[in-house]
Amino acid sequence: xxxxxxxxxxxxxxxxxxxxxxGDQLRRMYDEVVMEPVPDEFLKLLDDADIAAESSSRxxxxxxxx
Amino acid sequence: MSMQDTGLSDLAFKKELAELVPHxxxxxxxxxxxxxxxxxxxxxxxxxxxxxxxxxxxxxNMKAWSFTILRNVFYSEKRKSWRQQSLDPDVAEATxxxxxxxxxxxxLLALRNAMNELPDDQKxxxxxxxxxxxxxxxxxxxxxxxxxxxxxxxxxxxxxVIDILESNHTGFSSDSKLSAADAFDDIMNQxxxxxxxxxxxx
Lengths: 66, 202
Known about the structure:
heterodimer, A: mainly alpha, 2 domains, B: Rna Polymerase Sigma Factor, Chain: A, Arc Repressor Mutant, subunit A, globular
């Protein structure tokens, strides 16, 4: 193998390894957030929206709790 | 109780949506960088998804469906923020570096900063395909464009991230001895040690 071929091969290999590494990091970055506990606020908002939907479908008046 | 004939019951829908919240948060965080703004965005998207539950078709991918909603919220907020400045990149970057992510490994901060330099259309495709576990076809549907367009955005985004990490000391030049490039060299050394045959395509 001549030097030029070797260099091209090395470049290609290092490019692939960089891309793979970026892919791994990207998943890590995303998964770190996925693994975080979800702030209570989210489920409370969803529950409130659900309760509002139910009570409006029953034509009840709704109380929002603080 | 739900009246939709092709939908889920409200209860089943709510359960599935609640399980997707961590993904909504992760997608939002990678789109807008700033954790507090991202949670606002994820909450908006979650509530919009709840209100739109009648249009969700049971059996289809709810993650893709809810990402479509989040993305729409993101772009409409972003248009508004040109007036409000709430998504100002300098503010986002300052929070990113000094604030809630300060315990994140340096290479992830470097990656986040590099991601923030990407155009939104490339960034969102790279995240959804590269981390969110969606297919090119699903992302094409979400972004309402051709599969080939998504493939080309992802590949340009990958290349741009590498270029940015290698050429730029984004966010680290002034107050850190470790530049993004140094961190990257370190990562590359680890990568050499781990290298295997796969090329990471989906």
